[in-house]
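Hey team,

Filing this mostly as a record. A colleague (T.K.) asked me to run one chain through the structure pipeline before their review meeting, and I want the input and output archived in the tracker in case anyone asks later how it was produced. No errors, nothing strange. Just documentation.

Input sequence:
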Amino acid sequence: HVQLVESGGGSVQAGGSLNLSCVASSYTDSGYCMGWLRMAPGSMRERVATIDGDGNIDYADFASGRFILSKDNDKNKLTLQMYALKPYDTAVYYCAASRRPTCTQPFQYYGQGTQVTVS
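Output structure:
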């Protein structure tokens, strides 16, 4: 079982930036898919960005060009840099991981979530 702990959420004005971090309890090497998802009030959870075991990064359309996903394997850390934030980015953001090298299936592990509010 992998435990994921997120940090970095908060409140920001439209146009601002936030960095979200996620630290995994165990080594998440090339055998893992990791990513960030979000869930806004009244909406279903949706993928924001993922990185597969080969380091390929995929962004949702709304994140492309504004968000940057990066992974530090030495620190078991996944970071999401968010720029030009908009009110519709308001959501609880979840770090997620799967013990699979590809990101085509639902995630196996989730963090507790961190709130991002854009006003």
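Quick notes for T.K.: The CA atoms of residues 63 and 98 lie 21 Å apart. The chain has a mean pLDDT of 95.
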